[in-house]
Amino acid sequence: MPFELPNDDALYQALLVRDCAYEGRAYVAVTTTRVFCRLTCPARKPKRNNCLFFRTVAACMEAGFRPCKRCRPLISAAEVDPLVRTLIEAMENNPTQRWSEQRIIAMGLEPSTVRRVFKRHFDITFLEMARLRRVRHAVSSLTRGASVIEAQFAAGFESASGFRDALARVLGRSPSEVSQGAGLNADWLETPLGAMLAVTDRHALYLLEFFDRKQLPKALRRLQAKKGAIGIGRYAVTDQVATELRDYFAGAQMSFKTPVAQLGSDFTRVVWTALGDIPLGQTRNYSEIAQAVGRPAASRAVARANAANPIAVMVPCHRVIGADGSLTGYGGGRWRKQWLIDHERQMVSQTTTIRAGFYS
Questions:
Q1: Which DSSP state fits 45?
Q2: Phi and psi at residue 242, to the nearest 5°
Q3: Which of 12, 162, 217, 266 is the most exposed place for a label (fewest CB within 10 A)?
Q4: Which residues contact 17 (CB under 8 A, 6 or more apart)?
Q5: What stretch of H or E contains 302?
């Protein structure tokens, strides 16, 4: 039987007393520092509202957190496995190194054995772990306003063209088509739940998604087909999104005022507007949304429209749950959905309802 973790409040208490019972079974990620730790970490304890808890190293890294240099959570499994220690130390000594099976073989190791051992200890392969670390470096650099060339070196890419190619794969275009100053521009925004990609023009926000969402490339291709080329850069609208998201995650009393472009069908636009009408700190199910838009028999269509929402957080599709109270699916990951719902419930004493302002 899998080990059952207690709720997050109990895990936070375990963090405060450095309870070793959860060693290798739970990790804490700190949203202010973007670092994840063992619960036994000797570092100064973060505030409760700055903590997220995960079962695996893989979940921490996929959410955009980096390992703590003090408690070294990646080394916990390595203490009993020399193979893991060798590779983790090599990666930590050079976190931007571009790894491949050939490089692993050159170290005298068998790639299939490395895959199996890392999956067993971390629920992620070594090559996936190394790639996530490199992506994290790239995203951090872009978020700080670095140039593409600076971000390329921070991510450990071997050439500017290699970095451009990686971005082009996400944007669904050839490297030569990725340029500055297109009609639509994409830029990265850092949030406590991981990096997000914002696509704007001079007037409105068209897409806001978590960078690690699997459907992001498809969403970008659909947007490109409707609105033309997407370049790299930001407009004033992007700065407005960044400011409003920062205030939202800080729990400030505010409302989203960024103009949001609606490119869906008439029905989906009605559903997206209804999402913004769900009060802060509350949830609705698909049937209740269908009733609200005057289509009581259209619960499935509402679910499809909800899933097609291209503006995460600011158009709050995360507030829609199953009729039985279950979280149901969420493109950014159910753990993010739960965090957003919990965060908003902590803000219910505020008087401002958070909703998006639509731009036609």
A1: P
A2: -60, -45
A3: 266
A4: none
A5: helix 299-307
Q: Which letter does DSSP use for residue 260 in this model?
A: E
Cross-strand bridge partners of residue 30: 35, 51
What is the 3 state secondary structure string of 241-254? HHHHHHHHHCCCCC
Sequence-distant (≥ 6) Cβ neighbours of residue 342 within 8 angstroms: none
Contacts of 221 (CB under 8 A, 6+ apart): 172
3 state SS of 7: coil
Are 153 and 256 in the same domain? Answer: no
Using an 8 Å Cβ cutoff, are 312 and 208 in contact?
yes
Q: What angle do CA 130, 132, 135 make, to 5 degrees?
A: 110
Percent with pLDDT over 70 in the chain: 80
DSSP secondary structure letter of residue 176: G
Catalytic-role residue among 37, 60, 71, 317 = 317
* Residues 250, 321: Cα–Cα separation, whole Å: 24
Residue showing tokens 């978020």:
143
For the ranges 229-243, 273-287, 342-356, the maximum mean pLDDT occurs at 273-287
d(CA 127, CA 133) in angstroms, rounded, equals 10
262: domain range? 243-359
Please tell me the number of Cα atoms within 13 Å of 205 on its side-chain side.
31
Rg, C-alpha atoms of the chain: 21
* pLDDT above 60 for 142: no
SS3 206: strand
218 domain-assigned = no
CATH number for the domain that contains residue 260: 1.10.10.10
The domain total for the chain is 2
What confidence score (pLDDT) does residue 143 get?
47
317 an active-site residue? Answer: yes
Q: Calculate the dihedral angle through the C-alpha atoms of 273, 303, 327, 65, rounding to the nearest 10 degrees.
A: -70
The predicted model gives 106-131 an average pLDDT of 86
DSSP 173: S
- 303 vs 58, higher pLDDT: 303
